[in-house]
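Explain this one:

_____
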Amino acid sequence: MSNISGVYVHERDEGVEEFYEQRGAHFLAEKMMVKMSPTVTIKVDDEGTYRLHTKTQVKNFEWIFKLGQEVSLPTPDGTRTFIFEVDENGKLTQTPTGESASMGVQIEREFSDDGMVMTLMHLASGESAKRHFRRSQ
Protein backbone atom coordinates (compact mmCIF):
# COMPACT_ATOMS: atom_id res chain seq x y z
CA MET A 1 0.00 0.00 0.00
CA SER A 2 1.31 3.42 -0.96
CA ASN A 3 1.55 6.28 1.55
CA ILE A 4 -1.52 8.52 1.24
CA SER A 5 0.12 11.64 2.69
CA GLY A 6 1.57 13.95 0.06
CA VAL A 7 1.05 16.77 -2.41
CA TYR A 8 -0.72 15.91 -5.67
CA VAL A 9 -0.76 18.16 -8.75
CA HIS A 10 -3.53 17.78 -11.34
CA GLU A 11 -2.32 16.52 -14.73
CA ARG A 12 -5.27 15.40 -16.82
CA ASP A 13 -8.89 14.29 -16.90
CA GLU A 14 -10.91 11.51 -18.47
CA GLY A 15 -14.56 12.29 -19.20
CA VAL A 16 -14.93 15.07 -16.61
CA GLU A 17 -16.70 17.54 -18.90
CA GLU A 18 -19.21 14.89 -20.00
CA PHE A 19 -19.66 13.79 -16.39
CA TYR A 20 -20.75 17.26 -15.27
CA GLU A 21 -22.95 17.75 -18.34
CA GLN A 22 -24.78 14.48 -17.66
CA ARG A 23 -25.20 15.38 -14.00
CA GLY A 24 -27.07 18.52 -15.02
CA ALA A 25 -24.53 20.85 -13.43
CA HIS A 26 -25.15 24.54 -13.93
CA PHE A 27 -23.32 25.71 -17.05
CA LEU A 28 -20.98 28.17 -15.32
CA ALA A 29 -20.28 25.84 -12.39
CA GLU A 30 -19.59 22.99 -14.82
CA LYS A 31 -17.18 25.06 -16.89
CA MET A 32 -15.39 26.23 -13.76
CA MET A 33 -15.01 22.67 -12.44
CA VAL A 34 -13.65 21.39 -15.74
CA LYS A 35 -11.11 24.21 -16.08
CA MET A 36 -9.78 23.93 -12.52
CA SER A 37 -6.42 22.31 -12.09
CA PRO A 38 -6.32 21.66 -8.35
CA THR A 39 -3.41 20.83 -6.12
CA VAL A 40 -4.39 18.45 -3.33
CA THR A 41 -2.42 18.08 -0.10
CA ILE A 42 -3.25 15.17 2.18
CA LYS A 43 -1.86 14.80 5.69
CA VAL A 44 -2.64 12.11 8.24
CA ASP A 45 -1.61 12.69 11.86
CA ASP A 46 -0.74 10.15 14.54
CA GLU A 47 -4.33 10.14 15.88
CA GLY A 48 -5.75 9.20 12.46
CA THR A 49 -7.09 12.65 11.61
CA TYR A 50 -6.99 13.36 7.88
CA ARG A 51 -6.56 16.84 6.41
CA LEU A 52 -7.41 17.08 2.73
CA HIS A 53 -6.60 20.57 1.43
CA THR A 54 -7.60 21.45 -2.13
CA LYS A 55 -6.18 24.56 -3.75
CA THR A 56 -7.65 25.93 -6.99
CA GLN A 57 -7.48 29.16 -8.94
CA VAL A 58 -10.95 30.09 -7.64
CA LYS A 59 -11.30 28.71 -4.13
CA ASN A 60 -9.36 26.77 -1.53
CA PHE A 61 -10.90 24.47 1.02
CA GLU A 62 -9.81 22.02 3.69
CA TRP A 63 -11.67 18.97 4.87
CA ILE A 64 -10.79 17.47 8.24
CA PHE A 65 -12.12 14.01 9.06
CA LYS A 66 -11.52 10.63 10.65
CA LEU A 67 -12.19 7.36 8.89
CA GLY A 68 -15.58 5.78 9.52
CA GLN A 69 -17.13 8.91 11.04
CA GLU A 70 -19.84 10.91 9.27
CA VAL A 71 -18.80 14.51 8.69
CA SER A 72 -20.47 17.59 7.15
CA LEU A 73 -18.25 19.32 4.61
CA PRO A 74 -18.58 22.31 2.29
CA THR A 75 -18.84 21.36 -1.38
CA PRO A 76 -19.05 23.53 -4.51
CA ASP A 77 -22.84 23.14 -4.47
CA GLY A 78 -23.50 23.47 -0.72
CA THR A 79 -22.78 21.46 2.41
CA ARG A 80 -23.04 17.70 2.22
CA THR A 81 -22.42 14.87 4.64
CA PHE A 82 -19.93 12.12 3.85
CA ILE A 83 -18.21 9.16 5.37
CA PHE A 84 -14.59 8.31 4.49
CA GLU A 85 -13.09 4.83 4.50
CA VAL A 86 -9.83 3.23 3.36
CA ASP A 87 -9.85 -0.31 1.98
CA GLU A 88 -7.11 -2.92 2.28
CA ASN A 89 -5.47 -1.61 -0.91
CA GLY A 90 -5.21 1.94 0.43
CA LYS A 91 -8.05 3.36 -1.68
CA LEU A 92 -9.69 6.32 0.12
CA THR A 93 -13.44 6.32 -0.57
CA GLN A 94 -15.70 9.31 0.12
CA THR A 95 -19.37 8.28 0.14
CA PRO A 96 -22.28 10.71 0.48
CA THR A 97 -24.73 10.04 3.30
CA GLY A 98 -28.00 11.57 4.43
CA GLU A 99 -30.99 12.71 2.39
CA SER A 100 -29.25 13.31 -0.92
CA ALA A 101 -26.96 10.26 -0.78
CA SER A 102 -28.56 8.44 -3.71
CA MET A 103 -28.15 11.49 -5.95
CA GLY A 104 -24.64 12.28 -4.76
CA VAL A 105 -21.18 11.59 -6.08
CA GLN A 106 -18.92 8.96 -4.58
CA ILE A 107 -15.21 9.72 -4.89
CA GLU A 108 -12.50 7.09 -4.80
CA ARG A 109 -8.89 8.19 -4.51
CA GLU A 110 -6.37 5.51 -5.46
CA PHE A 111 -2.75 6.16 -4.53
CA SER A 112 0.56 4.99 -5.93
CA ASP A 113 4.17 6.07 -5.49
CA ASP A 114 3.71 8.23 -8.61
CA GLY A 115 0.40 9.91 -7.81
CA MET A 116 -3.33 9.63 -7.30
CA VAL A 117 -6.27 8.77 -9.54
CA MET A 118 -9.55 10.26 -8.38
CA THR A 119 -12.64 8.50 -9.75
CA LEU A 120 -15.96 10.36 -9.53
CA MET A 121 -19.11 8.22 -9.67
CA HIS A 122 -22.63 9.64 -9.81
CA LEU A 123 -24.56 7.11 -7.72
CA ALA A 124 -27.97 7.59 -9.39
CA SER A 125 -26.79 7.23 -12.98
CA GLY A 126 -23.58 5.23 -12.63
CA GLU A 127 -21.74 7.79 -14.79
CA SER A 128 -18.08 8.22 -13.91
CA ALA A 129 -15.00 10.28 -14.71
CA LYS A 130 -11.36 10.32 -13.63
CA ARG A 131 -8.91 13.00 -12.61
CA HIS A 132 -5.21 12.16 -12.62
CA PHE A 133 -2.67 13.77 -10.27
CA ARG A 134 1.10 13.34 -10.02
CA ARG A 135 2.78 13.21 -6.64
CA SER A 136 5.05 16.22 -6.21
CA GLN A 137 6.18 15.60 -2.61
